[in-house]
Amino acid sequence: MYGHLSPRSLAVSFDETHTRDDLQQLVCAFRGPERPCSSQELEAIAAKLPPSGFTCLEPSLAHAFERKTPYLTHPVFHEYRTEHKMVRYIHQLAAKDLSLVHSMIPLGSCTMKLNATSEMMPVSWPEFALPHPFTPPEQMRGYHRLFADLEKALADITGFAAVSLQPNSGAQGEYAGLLTFLAYHKARGQQQRKVCIVPTSAHGTNPASAKMAGMHIIPVGTDAKGNIDIAELRARAEQNREHLAAAMITYPSTHGVFEEGIKEICEIIHANGGLVYIDGANLNAQMGLTSPAEIGGDACHLNLHKTLTIPHGGGGPGVGAIAVTEALAPFLPSHPVQPVASAHSDSAIGPVAAAPYGSASILPIVWMFVHMMGSDGLREASEQAILNANYMAARLSPAYSILYRGTQGRCAHEFILDLRPFKTSAGITESDVAKRLQDYGFHSPTMSWPVAGTLMIEPTESESIDELDRFCDAMLMIREEIRQIEQGRWDPQRNPLKNAPHTAEVVMSDTWDRPYPREVAAYPANWLYTRGKFWPRTSRIDDVYGDRNLVCSCPPVPEMMAATTGGAPSKSGSEEDRARTAVASS
Amino acid sequence: MSKSHEWVKLENGTGTIGITTHAATQLGDIVGSQLEKGSTFGAVESVKAASDVYSPVSGEVVEVNAVLSEDPAQVNKDPHGAGWMIKVRVDNPDELHDLMDARAYEQHVQSEDH
Question: How is the cofactor bound (chain B) (predicted)?
């Protein structure tokens, strides 16, 4: 790829797939056919290029930027050098993990829906996978059409006027949205507006983003039904009438309820000079039914890696595109190296991510999803997601109490099971139930969020009724197991819940002294015989000890430094690190 | 006590702030804490969750409980004593009227649990 550095100079970058032939073609392209590049000249240019790493035709610069520290020094990077070894190693790692290939992952607030293969395929096409983020736009016409299409589609879904694809996560979207708010206030001569109201039930990223944006956070509590305390919100907004910049609201609420006061909340904020940021985490309950603009918001982000099917996991990349009203559109972020096509050059805020279009290479997934679904399909997806959640809530409610519901007794696309009563009745915590689900072949729902001592379930639209039923069956069977403890038939400590999960080693061991059969431990449900058993890889660990004693399982730092500098690590350091490594491997 | 489960004790214009016994029990074993100035003045991390902690009164933070960064379990052991988090020079003592006494807080906790 190349880019213009100035009117008279051009930057060219090669990766390791390029050869001398490419170099020759490039030189020829500039010289024209009448002055071909001789092989000596080519050799002279090639000789200036270091064999690997950073390459630059100007040797003094090459030296300045050349990497001098070692890299990929961990043994794992050197142990798998044949395809057989590599494939087996990767499968070995995958086999340790219970994933969507085994069963539904009902993680509340995470929207673990299907990432369809057809959506994923274009990501591997070289036309999408290879371009550098700063490739000149005229060489990336297809990409730019995709950006424009997506900006329009996301504006339609949210009901807003303009979209920025730049933020790399929901949190970065929040940050970008709040900076946009501040720029808007400033442009109107109201730079004193710095107060941001955040409900205490908000995602933790909300106050963090507001603080990053330099705002002053004022918390507002919730009422007994889990809804935002509107009287308190009104009082706080009015007290800060002169300084109110924003409020950050999640809809449906983080408690999984379509809050009926949402329009009133937005009106109160607007009446006091503030703007409303809608956290888009729960967009999967809204598509085609309502929208952040419809309820009165001024901006929102969309977690494209939740509702719009970019896969989670592996630490990303995610995309937290933001959508805003007409009035805020002039302030959406641009980029100094390569301006964003739809941004307003004179008023845009600076970039919030390194690349003008963020994680552009995964946007084809979203494009595919939106176009294959169509607007009717997106609405049906949200309807099905809400129906699935309410179906599960209805099946589970005779056995478990559902923490919050709307006034009609329904939840949105997710719901919270309150497990706190079992702590008193049987000494069983949400953690015991979560671990026991592994014995049944399921990943736990979200634990202790947004309320400690609970499980939050979000099925999404992607799961069939059979899978929903199988998960409900597992939860109902676990409820009966809890009853065994409540009624004194099972020991309060030595029972399958407290000892869950059960590994193959534990169950196969020649010594088994627990007061319940091995079959109850590892094969509590019939489907485990027919579908096959996923064996958890470790028994219960001591969470508190683990969290208080963080250990890095990489080689200790002094050892790596010794490898770099050739010096011996200090004695005290090495002993301490050996002790740490011992903990890590035990 | 505040609705978001912090307590404040006022002595000679300085308010000592921590989280309530109820909050500490709900969070489970506290494994870390990070305290600094600001309206959300810090965070507590338990095995279950990381939670923001809000200051129930405005003012300047004059001291943070340094012991907690080494021994966060103090918050579980003695939330209203050794587990205190920050001391604040209170700007406006009237703000304390917005908070709840022990009895009103007890009712608030019960209404939340319902």
Answer: Binds 1 lipoyl cofactor covalently.
| ipTM of this complex prediction, to 2 decimal places | 0.71
> Residue B54: its chain A contacts at CB < 8 A?
200, 219
Residues 6 or more apart in contact with residue A179 via CB below 8 angstroms: A213, A331, A333, A349, A352
Please give the average per-residue pLDDT across B66-92, as a whole number: 89
Please check whether residue B112 touches A, CB under 8 A.
Answer: yes
- The token duo for B103 is 């009895």
Q: Domains in chain A: how many in total? A: 4
The stretches in chain A having pLDDT less than 70 are: 1-5, 16, 49-62, 313-316, 554-586
CB contact under 8 A, A207 and B48: no
Asked if B98 has any chain A CB less than 8 Å from its own CB, the reply is no
Q: How many CB pairs under 8 A join A and B?
A: 58
* Topology, domain B6-113: OB fold (Dihydrolipoamide Acetyltransferase, E2P) (2.40.50)
Domain ranges of chain B: 6-113
Three-class SS of A121-153: HHHHCHHHHCCCCCCCHHHCHHHHHHHHHHHHH
Closest partner residue to B112 (CB to CB) among A218, A224, A232 is A224
Name the pTM for this structure: 0.85
Average pLDDT over residues B15-36: 81
Q: Which of A358, A389, A407 is the last residue of a domain?
A: A358
Residue A485: which residues within 8 A CB-CB, separation 6 or more? A426, A427, A428, A491, A492, A495, A497
pLDDT of residue A564: 53
